[in-house]
Design brief:
The protein is an alpha+beta fold. Helix content is 16%, strand content 30%. The chain is built from two helices and seven strands; from the N terminus they run βαβαβββββ. Strands 1, 2, 3, 4, 5, 6 and 7 form a seven-stranded mixed beta sheet that branches. The chain is globular, with a radius of gyration of 14 Å. Pfam families: Lectin_C. This is C-type lectin domain-containing protein.
């Protein structure tokens, strides 16, 4: 995981992560959350972008992970992007045009066909 201390809106954060790393972070387990919590002091904004997005009536992770946090079932526009509050550790649906820090991840191949997130590569 890499904390990016740049101020970007959600879309620009996504492009940055996909260009320089693998993707915006998805936090789908206690292990993921623990790793994020260990990096909190590097985040310079009250909230940070994650790979959580609301579109076509559903919340989803941009990297297709399955476990989702509890989010509003029908958020009003433009609050369709998922962020996590640094101090409270709670999920927030935010205006996608807001700028804040974000966390990217980078897959590192192990055993030839899996990455560190446990995702099988095609």
């Amino acid at each position: 995981m890499i904390v990016v201390q740049e101020m970007k809106n959600w879309e620009d954060a996504l492009v940055h992560c996909r260009t320089h790393y693998t993707d915006l972070i998805s936090i789908t387990s206690e292990t993921d959350q623990y790793a994020v919590n260990s990096m909190i002091t590097d985040i310079q904004t009250p909230t940070f972008w994650t790979g959580l997005r609301f579109m076509n009536g559903i919340w989803f992770w941009v990297n297709h992970q399955q476990t989702l946090p509890s989010m509003p079932s029908c958020p009003i526009r433009p609050f369709h992007c998922g962020a996590q509050n640094v101090q409270a550790g709670v999920w927030e649906n935010r205006d996608c045009s807001e700028t804040m820090n974000f966390i990217c991840y980078q897959n590192i191949s192990i055993h030839g066909n899996q990455d560190l997130h446990g995702t099988k590569k095609n």
